[in-house]
């Protein structure tokens, strides 16, 4: 039997190693979250309760007035609608494109080169990517020579130039294409690793049983990579919920492209309380997904 003081020291040692990380987390994560919540309950001056922002004759939620704004203001409603559109279209689009790349890249001769090219956009900052694609979508008004790549091509083909970024009917989809271009490489890399980790015996047995390529993918490979697919999908949902750089650089949130994070950024100077309320909503939406991803990673480690 070990002496009691040695046992106690043994229990303390792990906490000594964890202490620096815990202090950093406390200062840079926990404290800012509670400070954000505190500011979200105050008015734009951050000195009085948010109830001071209430307008006579209009609904008022008292200290939660900033949250009423975040959930009912028309501009916020537009931002929430756009984020929902990104979730419904960009998330599945990116995951599907990434999965296709993962399957096809494994079949080509120069697999490493192909994957490097597909993954390359991830090495570009989102701001840099936004500037690149703003030039791609650029339209020269007034009948001048088109210098934007897509519109120059359309003119060469005899078509009229298109205002990709200022036309509300298509601009959100044009921005989503940029998001897919950026993130498809990430999805491909993770899913490709999952596919390569599948037991060759199972795949060979399926082929011997007469399964064709589609049946092999749909009935064998897809169910086996489902946990990884779920983690990739939730990661993309998190990225879409906090999407900001692409929208800010390419349209500034104008022309009906406003998203939650962009709206929060615009309000940070003029109305801190409302901006912090929007930030809290983002935290509430993203933290459960982050915890779910952590749980899935831990579950996979246990299974392995």
Structural classification: mainly alpha
N-to-C span: 34 Å
- The CATH architecture term is Orthogonal Bundle
**Record field, number of beta strands:** 0
Mean pLDDT: 85
Biggest β-sheet description: none
Order of helices and strands: HHHHHHHHHHHHH
Q: Strand percentage, roughly? A: under 5%
- For this structure, what is the CATH class? Mainly Alpha
CATH level-4 homologous superfamily: MetI-like
- Give Rg in angstroms: 25 Å
Shape: flat
What CATH calls the topology is MetI-like fold
Task: Provide the helix percentage.
Answer: over 70%
The number of helical elements comes to 13
- Unreliable sequence segments: none
**What's the domain count?**
1
Q: How does this structure look, described?
A:
By secondary structure, the protein is mainly α. It has a single domain, classed as MetI-like fold (Orthogonal Bundle), CATH 1.10.3720.10. 72% of the residues lie in helices and 0% in strands. The protein is built from 13 helices and no strands. It starts with a helix and ends with a helix. The model has no long low-confidence stretch (mean pLDDT 85).
